[in-house]
């Protein structure tokens, strides 16, 4: 796909948790496995901004009529429960935000003023998020291109969503109030791969401060994506940076599809969508559809809605878009004529519905089986989205899914959701404060990459990957102390990468545990081949290297013990050696390594095997001569 020809524009909003205590109280910024047993409930409603307007996104959230259940934790205070005014803002968090701003060549503001951003999806107990502008007009260069950073903000993170059932959504308060820095980039990113690369570059710079949190969920990206003729779509909360390119690709495909559907509707001369709804319950009195039968048993109805000219444009296209809007009304889903007959609905029942709605060959319909009020509300919610399909791509916020696709969440928020925070006084940003921060700015990532490659004699690509993954500090600490820089890089990049894919939390292994691992290796306690298995055990059990080696039994064996194992392998493989001679060495090497892996270096195994194989061959030949 030619993304530049499509006019692709991508901008990022990067939200990074800071490694300091909470923003408006002194509690520890950490997630906990269990709550402390205290729960409370809230209902939230939209409020007016300082301009007297109500935000469209907040209005739509209010339509869901949800109750929010909050679990208190040992590190959540009365501020997070919205039972106490905020404490003075965490000065360390502001210093970190200013440090990041200076690294991005930005212009710090002279006074930090916190605002309230209306958020009523339940993620904030108060119904708003506190956010403050810290700096303006920054930039970062990546791959020779300057990416602008118009705004840098300091704000509080949201509560952690645990799940929902029915009309209740459960949140835990451990994450609420953790300080975040938010970086918004200019929308001059032109390809999916460039979006991913820019995100990785920004992540490297943030980690260079050594003052940000690490791990899944500590950095999240909002992707703003549009193509020519489309609209800005915000994909909210992408946690896996390497999936960014996939999300952009899928969103471009979606917008292309929507524009094509709009063009087809125009070609069919469809200029409006009727709002008439017919009760077609009678058609389904003897239906075999489980969904419809269940709805009718509960006293529900089946409503039909005609969509003239939409035939062939619903399945895999507009259908999922409509279903997402119907769910706002609380229905589980909808049926549409492009996917029927199916789901227990017969061709005869579909034909009857089409007759009731007076549909022609190019017309489609939607069927909703539910309690009548909910069913009518569902069609009301789908109406504006269907009208929007006539014009192409409606601007909206969408949620990421694990496969790289997205789902509708709400309309795009606007300027009507901000108003001043009256409980937090302004903070002057003095020249002395900025001077102090400038004096201690860290090395920039590009400089670190060049220095690591030069000083430790590793490949530049390895150095770049270490910096991008935030492993450069651990690498330097270990390689400087124990040497073996190439092995250390291999473990931190490739071994860790494989174990992450297996689901092990290698990022949670403390650096001092890794130092102990390489200390034991240098002391000859085990062979380097054992390192991956030891790291796996350390991650699995959260143990130290000495404990993991004891559990695995990988203590280095003596040369004498190794020779005994090799001799035994030679004896049982006499036929193989007879038929292949020295060429059997490779197969024998695999057999021996399988038995001694982690207890003897591969180089030593190869050396002993070669010597013993030659001796074995001579001895065998000598024995054959005697027999003659």
Query: Could you tell me the mean pLDDT?
Result: 90
What is the C-alpha radius of gyration, as a whole number of Å?
Answer: 32 Å
Number of helices: 20
Query: Tally of extended strands?
Result: 21
How far apart are the termini? 75 Å
Structural class label: alpha+beta
Low-pLDDT residue intervals, each spanning 5 or more residues: none
Shape: globular
Which percent range fits the helix content?
A: 40-55%
Q: Percent of residues in beta strands?
A: 15-25%
Total of domains? 4
**Biggest β-sheet strands, sense, barrel:** 11 strands, mixed
Describe the structure.
With 628 residues, the protein is α+β, with helices and mostly antiparallel strands. It folds into 4 domains: 9-24 and 38-266 and 414-419, no CATH class; 277-389, Gyrase A, domain 2 (2-Layer Sandwich), CATH 3.30.1360.30; 445-552, no CATH class; 559-627, Arc Repressor Mutant, subunit A (Orthogonal Bundle), CATH 1.10.10. The chain has 20 helices and 21 strands. The strands form 4 sheets. Strands 1, 4, 6, 7, 8, 11, 12, 13, 18, 19 and 20 form an 11-stranded mixed beta sheet that branches. A 4-stranded mixed beta sheet has the order 2-3-10-9, with no helix packed on it. Helix 2 crosses helix 9 (431-438). The mean pLDDT is 90.
